[in-house]
Design a protein that fits this description.
heterodimer; A: 82 residues; mainly alpha; 0% strand; B: 243 residues; 9 helices; globular
Chain lengths: 82, 243
C-alpha cells in the first residue's frame, strides 16, 4: 500500500514534526514528500496535524481577573514610588 | 534617558525570528496575542516603562500575565504560588528596566525572569517534599504518535485517520477549541510547556530552547509528543460527534 518501500506510514507519522519544523535533511524530506504524494491517509494525517496546530494558535489567552489587575497595578505603583 | 540606540535595534532584529511562522512548510499562524515583542515596539515599550507609564505596563500585563501564570504553574505546587511568582517576575522586569540592554526581546527577557523565579520556588517547595522538579524528560522512553494497532505488519495504515469535518459549523468550532484547550492542559508538564509556548503563544523554537534549557532535538521530541496527543484527542472527539 505504501508507495515508498523504504518509508512506511508508521515511520512517517513520527517524522511529521521534524518535517513541519524544517529539520529534516533534504533527502529525508524528499522521501517523505514522495510518500505523501502517493498516500492519502498520510496526507490526511499531516493535514490533521496542521489543523491541530492552527486551532492551538486560536486559543485566546485568559483575560486577567480584576484581582490580578489590581495586584499588578499595585506592584507598578509601589515600584514607581521607589 | 534611552540607552537603546540603533546598534541595539539591529542586534535585536537579528535575534528576532518571524514569530508568525512556526516552521518551514507548517503555515502555522502565530499564537493568539503572542505577538513578537518586536524591535521597534520593544524600544517604545522600554522607553514608556522607564518613564513610568502605567498604561503601557498594564498593556504588557494583559498580553503576558495569563501565559506566565500557566507556565509558572508547571514548576510550582499551587495556583497561588504561580500567581505570586508571576507578580515577582513583573517586579523583576520593572527593577531591571533601566539596565535592560535589548539583547533579547522584552518578552523573552520577561519569561526568562519568570522561569528562573518559578524554578527556584519550585525547587524550594519540593525540597520539603523531596521530589525532583520534573520527571525524567522522556517518560516513557518510547511514545508513539499513533497507536501501533492502527498499522499493519508492514507499517501501512490498517485504520487510517478519517477525514475531519471541514469547515466545521460554528458550534463545532467553539467545541473544538475547548477540546484542544483541555487536551493541552492534560499534557505532562514538559510537553505542556513546549506546546503552549510554541503553538498557543507563538514563541519560536529558539526562544523555547533558551527559556526551558532544552536542546533543539529535545524541544522537537516534546513538541512532537504533545501535538500527537492533542491530535489524538481531537480525532476521538470528531469520532464521537460524527458517529
Amino acid at each position: 500500500m505504501s508507495p515508498s518501500p523504504d518509508l512506511s506510514c508508521q515511520e512517517l507519522v513520527e517524522l511529521v514534526t521534524e518535517y513541519l519544523e524544517g529539520a529534516l535533511p533534504a533527502r529525508e524530506r524528499a522521501r517523505l514528500e514522495s510518500h505523501l504524494r502517493g498516500c492519502g491517509a498520510c496526507a490526511g494525517y499531516l493535514d490533521q496535524m496542521r489543523h491541530t496546530i492552527r486551532v492551538s494558535g486560536r486559543l485566546s489567552p485568559d483575560d486577567i481577573t480584576s484581582a490580578q489587575h489590581d495586584a499588578l497595578i499595585d506592584v507598578f505603583r509601589r515600584w514607581k514610588a521607589g | 534617558m534611552s540607552r537603546a540606540g540603533p546598534v541595539r535595534l539591529s542586534r535585536l532584529s537579528r535575534l528576532r525570528r518571524d514569530p508568525g511562522k512556526a516552521g518551514v512548510g507548517s503555515g502555522v499562524g502565530g499564537g493568539a496575542g503572542g505577538g513578537a515583542a518586536g524591535g521597534a515596539d520593544d524600544q517604545a515599550m522600554v522607553r514608556l516603562l522607564r518613564e513610568g507609564d502605567e498604561g503601557a505596563f498594564m498593556a504588557l500585563v494583559a498580553r503576558h500575565h495569563g501565559p506566565m501564570v500557566r507556565l509558572a504553574r508547571t514548576y510550582v505546587q499551587s495556583d497561588a504560588s504561580a500567581e505570586e511568582v508571576a507578580q515577582e517576575a513583573w517586579l523583576g522586569l520593572l527593577r531591571g528596566i533601566h539596565s535592560f540592554e535589548g539583547r533579547s526581546s522584552v518578552r523573552t527577557w520577561l519569561f526568562r525572569i519568570l522561569v528562573n523565579q518559578a524554578k527556584t520556588r519550585g525547587v524550594r517547595e519540593r525540597r520539603a517534599a523531596s521530589e525532583p522538579l520534573f520527571a525524567p524528560l522522556f517518560e516513557p522512553a518510547v511514545e508513539t504518535a499513533v497507536g501501533a494497532d492502527r498499522f499493519g505488519p508492514l507499517g501501512s495504515w490498517s485504520t487510517p485517520p478519517l477525514p475531519w469535518p471541514a469547515p466545521p459549523d460554528p458550534a463545532v468550532a467553539a467545541e473544538t477549541l475547548a477540546v484542544v484547550s483541555e487536551a493541552i492542559s492534560a499534557l505532562p508538564p514538559r510537553q505542556r510547556q513546549v506546546m503552549s509556548l510554541r503553538d498557543v503563544h507563538g514563541f519560536t523554537a529558539a526562544e523555547v530552547c533558551d527559556l526551558l534549557e532544552l536542546t533543539d532535538a529535545n524541544q522537537r521530541v516534546l513538541l512532537h509528543r504533545a501535538r500527537a496527543r492533542v491530535r489524538g484527542r481531537l480525532e476521538a472527539y470528531f469520532e464521537e460527534v460524527g458517529g
